[in-house]
Design brief:
mainly alpha, Arc Repressor Mutant, subunit A, 2 domains, 11 helices
Length: about 190
Amino acid sequence: MAYPLAKAIRQHDYFNYSIREALFLSETEESTIVGIIQQIQREYQAPIDKFSQNIIIAQLEVLLNYADRFYQRQFITRRIIHHELLDRFEAVLEAYVVGGELLKTGLPTVGYIAEQLSLSPTYLSNLLKTLTGQSPQQHIHERLIKRAKELLSTSTLSVSEIAYELGFGHPSSFSKLFKSKTRSSPLEFRHSFN
């Protein structure tokens, strides 16, 4: 018999976190979690009957629901720590962009930035989405567009040269991203300064 829990469990992003990104619990929350685990353990050790599996599955669902509640809560109660991580994220991205890494290795990946912050990509994505409403990729794109605007307004580099300097393999990819973010092409943006 297939249980809905088997599908639902994949929706819990925190299963992709590293061990350093544990769920932070208050004493009361920890007591709740421990109590549920003890109930599961007692049921598991009791003589098996036709209700055993359903009861264990139900307790696991309760456990996951509490974990979701406590998980979401920690993004609110640990705001100072999370804002420090956001500042570190932006510092890593800034160093990558202005340090010439774009030209050497191309566009930064979420995985690269997460690694620099000693986080899993999933945790970083969830954190940024909760704090800013944007994904890491959206933050990366915004920083690239900011740099592109700087280069378009202060240099004589061609659009293709700027695209390559920003780590794009193809100028058309750069132009498409620029237009989607600014509603003007790179050349239209440049001409608005003349």
